[in-house]
Amino acid sequence: MVFNVLLYTSLFVFIFGVICKIYTWFSWEIGFSSRDINRSERLTAAFKGISGTIFSAKILILIKVFILDVVFQKRILKEDFLRWAMHMLIYAGFMLLLLMHALDRHITACLFSEYYSTLNPFFFLRNFFGTMVIAGLAIAIYRRFILKVPRLKTNSMDYYAIIILAVIMVSGFFLEATKITSISDFERMVNEFSDVDEKKDLRALESLWVHEFGTVSPDFKEPFEQKLLEHGREIHETNCAACHSSPKWAFAGYALGNILKPVALSLDRAGGSKILWYIHILACFLGLAYLPFSKMFHIIAGPISLLANAVMEKGKSDPANITTRQVMELDACTHCGACSLRCSAAVAFDALGNENILPSEKMVSLKSLIAGKKLGSMEIKAVQEGICLCTNCDRCTVVCPVGINLKELWLNVREGLIQKGHPEPLLLSPFSFVRGLNQYELPADEYYKPVKAAKQAVAGKFDSLIKQSPLILDGKEVEKFNQLSKDNTFSYCFSCENCTSVCPVVCSFDKPEEALGLLPHQIMRCLGLGLIEMASGASMIWDCLTCYQCQENCPQNVNVTDLFFGLKNLAIKNVKKASSEKELSQRHEA
Ligand code: HEC
Ligand code: SF4
Ligand code: SF4
Ligand code: SF4
Ligand code: SF4
Questions:
Q1: pLDDT band for position 590 (50/70/90)?
Q2: Nearest CA to ligand 5 atom 6
Q3: What string of DSSP letters covers 95-112?
Q4: Which of 44, 75, 212, 540 is deepest in the core (most CB within 10 A)?
């Protein structure tokens, strides 16, 4: 009764949660692409897209992805064997337990007419699968807390997932161990399944169970006479053996039972197995009910993301479906940190400490943002910085085990931000470049509006830099500088801002752009655009400490500090040239 009430309540919450989640996939807005597409359009598009895919040759792609990426998790294996082993142990062990053990009445018992949970192979397999999950959890804890994989952040959701799984598994093993040792379970079984009532026979059966099956009896203890055991075995064979394999096959539960032997009797008297049964069942139901609201929801959203990304393509798929997929991807993210490990903007995170720069954390904060969670102005600023500090290098997309197309997601979210009136990131930043490359995907007025706004926002700012510049260069001199600058290393710059993020001079100002004119990455970008005068007008090059940190941290091997030297030398020569020309003309005049 209690069991059923709990089961149906948690099942109800689970289904309700899943429906709520799916509702958000179709109703939450994300970035720029969700404008002008309403919920019903998104639903219709999804329906059309799914049915169109299932009844086409694309179904073969889906099957392939399902087998390789969902069942065998090839993407994780490619990245890191330990992580793959961890995930496979937990996921496969848990799924098999769920099907064989938790749903035994509905699945195993239907498939095998001879099924009893205490009979092999089920008895052994239950322990085997359980041990797999425990081993996987041990690796998870080892990776997070001992190995300390770099940039793998652990948040409350990760703790929750580890703890709930651990409680389910550990209580399950303890429950088995107490049942194996329990004398009251033994007595219950004897009453139920045997017609033995003679004292002598009962004693023989109980002795055999103490001797071989791990039961702990208050009355009978080792050693036993061989004859008594043989008599017990006869009774066992006729009454019990049909449903009982030796508990030694339940190797983990049996070993634990052995350890618990000294306290087994008191545990049994205190109703240990009942208490443990409640803990086990409650943890399972709590896990089930909370699953749609926790990171464990990736069990459902992850495969959908993998399948959707395998058959969807920007430009070919309905934009409404891409929007829906992007919202869903936020649920699919397992917070595994693989993307952050590879992220080329992570140096900026190391320097600035803003977690939102890491793609795995960006996924978390983005979810709060689009869910409409109230964030403080500092938090919003941090999220915005995180979203804009990205080189568009695409490394995150390549490694994501659930196949999230992060590249497209960032692009969409940044465009949304820029269209909302934050044009600054457009200036001398990689986004202006990427946006330029993708401009034909946007209607012309939507492409140019933020560019205009950005120009207005900084009108005059760069003019003054050019005025301040000590240089007046002709074409020849520009060419010479470009050649001198060690094979133009600045042309490799993709404006990741790493140089700026690590610069101690930049860090020492509250408003570095005001104080320094241009920041290191912007200077590199100016050089790339041929704006040498503008670059040399920035006081940054004169305030530089020549610590070489920028150069060392540049993922593109740009000689940032050396280029600053080049600019300074050029400026000094130019000033000399200008003054000597002035001197000459003065002499002539004299
Ligand atoms: C019809 C099948 C069946 C028969 C016959 C049967 N049992 Fe069981 N027994 C089970 C099942 C199923 C469980 C586990 C579920 C439970 O505790 O009700 C179990 C559990 C037990 C347990 C608790 C330990 C554990 O591993 O869960 C003991 C002890 C036990 N049985 C003893 C006996 C004895 C002694 C006999 C013979 C007199 C016997 N059983 C006959 C099916 C049977
Ligand atoms: S695309 Fe951006 S977020 Fe992704 S790895 Fe590159 S820099 Fe990091
Ligand atoms: S986005 Fe992908 S790689 Fe990054 S944390 Fe989420 S699941 Fe892992
Ligand atoms: S110079 Fe290097 S570190 Fe600086 S923005 Fe360019 S690529 Fe990044
Ligand atoms: S060398 Fe200059 S620009 Fe580069 S990090 Fe050091 S102080 Fe900053």
A1: low
A2: 547
A3: HHHIIIIITTTTTHHHH-
A4: 540
Residue 337 and residue 361 in contact, taking contact as beta carbons nearer than 8 Å: no
Q: What pLDDT does residue 486 have?
A: 60
CA of 391 to the centre of ligand 2 (A): 6
Atom of ligand 4 nearest to the CA of 496: 8
CA of 332, nearest ligand number: 3
CATH 1.10.1060 fits 468-589, yes or no: yes
Distance of CA 216 to the CA centre of its chain: 47
Q: Average of pLDDT values for 42-65?
A: 92
Amino acid identity of 357? I
What sign for the dihedral angle of Cα 201, 204, 210, 214?
A: negative
Question: Can you give the residue ranges of every domain in the chain?
Answer: 2-180+280-298, 185-276, 337-457, 468-589
Largest CA distance in the chain: 138
The atom number, within ligand 5, closest to the CA of 551 reads 4
Pocket residue to mutate for ligand 4, from 554, 559, 561, 563, most atoms within 8 A of Cβ: 554
CB neighbours of residue 476 within 10 Å: 8
For residue 235, give the ligand nearest its CA.
1
* Cβ neighbours of residue 312 closer than 8 Å, sequence gap 6 or more: 49, 321, 322, 325
* 47 confidence band (pLDDT: 50, 70, 90): very high
- Tell me the two tokens of residue 207: 């002795």
Protein residue with its CA nearest to atom 6 in ligand 3:
333
Quick: pLDDT tens for 320-377. Answer: 999 999 999 999 999 999 999 999 888 888 878 899 999 999 999 999 889 988 888 8
Ligand 5: residue whose CA is nearest its atom 2: 544
User: Does the pTM exceed 0.90?
Assistant: no
Instruction: Name the closest-CA residue to atom 8, ligand 4.
Output: 496
- State if residue 547 touches ligand 5 by the CB under 6 angstroms criterion: yes
Residue 53 CA to ligand 2 center (angstroms) comes to: 30
Through-space distance between the first and last CA atoms of the chain, rounded to whole angstroms: 114
Q: Is the pLDDT of residue 43 over 80?
A: yes
The residue that leads in pLDDT, 425 or 9, is: 9
Ligand nearest 539 Cα, by number? 5
The more confidently predicted of residues 242 and 170 is 170
Residue of minimum CA distance from atom 3 in ligand 5: 544
The residue nearest atom 4 of ligand 5, judged by CA position, is: 550
Dihedral-angle region of residue 153 (phi above 0 means left; psi in -120 to 50 means alpha; beta otherwise): beta
Q: Which of 252, 275, 247, 14 is nearest to 133 (CA)?
A: 252
What crossing angle do the helices spanning 359-370 and 377-388 adopt, rounded to 10°? 130
Ligand 3 site residues, Cβ closer than 6 angstroms: 333-339, 359-360, 363, 399-402, 404, 406
Cα–Cα distance for residue pair 110/99, rounded to 1 Å? 12
